[in-house]
Amino acid sequence: MFFALVLWAGPAHAGPMDDALAAFEAQDFEAAVALWTPLANGGNGTAQYLLAYMHLTGRGVPHDYLRAETYFRLASEQRDTSGQTLLGALFEQGRGLPQNFSEAVWLYGLSAKSGDVVAQARLAALYAAGQGVDADPVTAFAWYAAAASQGDQAAAASRDALAQQLSSDDLARARKLAADFQARYRANP
Fold first, then answer.
1. What is the DSSP-derived secondary structure letter of residue 9?
2. What digits encode the pLDDT tens for the residues 19-57?
3. In whole angstroms, how far apart are CA 63 and each of 41, 57, 76, 93?
4. How far is residue 176's CA from residue 122's CA, in Å, rounded to a whole number?
5. pTM of the shown model
6. Which of 12, 17, 45, 137 has its CA at a distance of 20 to 30 angstroms from the CA of residue 131?
7. Per residue in 84-131, pLDDT tens?
């Protein structure tokens, strides 16, 4: 649906991480996995996320939802927002593990509050549909607005469509909450 690999390594991750990223970019997935595995097993959250992604997509290793979930959980525990978002997506979609909207809401919420645009939009959709939480169009509007303020055009369209369904009082509350969310929950540049 919306799985994407985010290739990022901060300055503290030189050496094997850079070599693994270079191997991935050269499509030598087995080498990337071999380099990320000891880093992930040693507690590197970025490597845990990337290794989870490899298991999710079957690149360099057999496709394995259970291992993907394990590494996404480890990355999530270290506040890796991409890991939180993709683990939330697995729960939302019921891909490789039982569908659990409440778990998806919790994981998306963690990531959304760190400014993850995908998590903000998915969290908004769950609030709008009442999946994993009570339906709350005001909160849904605010999360859509937060994602839209960071360039998500689909979230902007969903926010605008939802605005048409709100009473004037609810729309005023939604806009106020949206301004708060937009100020508080932006991705770090």
1. -
2. 999 999 999 999 999 999 999 999 999 999 999 999 999
3. 19, 6, 20, 17
4. 20
5. 0.86
6. 45
7. 999 999 999 999 889 999 999 999 999 999 999 999 999 999 999 999
Residue indicated by tokens 């770090």: 188
Angle at 102 between CA 127 and CA 109, to 5 degrees: 60
- Residue owning tokens 């908004």: 124
Question: Residue 155: in which H helix or E strand, if any?
Answer: helix 153-163
Contact (CB, 8 A) for 81 and 114? yes
CA distance 177 to 185: 12
Q: One-letter amino acid identity for 158?
A: S
Beta-carbon contacts of 51 under 8 Å, excluding residues fewer than 6 positions away, are 33, 36, 37, 40, 71
Residue 105, CA distances (Å) to 31, 130, 163, 178 in order = 35, 10, 22, 18
Helix (H, G, I), strand (E, B) or coil at 2: coil
The CA distance from 32 to 24, in Å, is 5
SS3 breakdown of the chain: % helix, strand, coil, rounded to 5? 65, 0, 35
Between CA 116 and CA 135 the distance in angstroms is: 22
Q: Which amino acid is at 169?
A: D
- Residue 9 has which token pair? 């390594």
Q: What span, in angstroms and rounded, lies between the C-alpha atoms of 67 and 52?
A: 7
For residue 8, give the nearest of 54, 52, 49, 57 by alpha carbon: 49
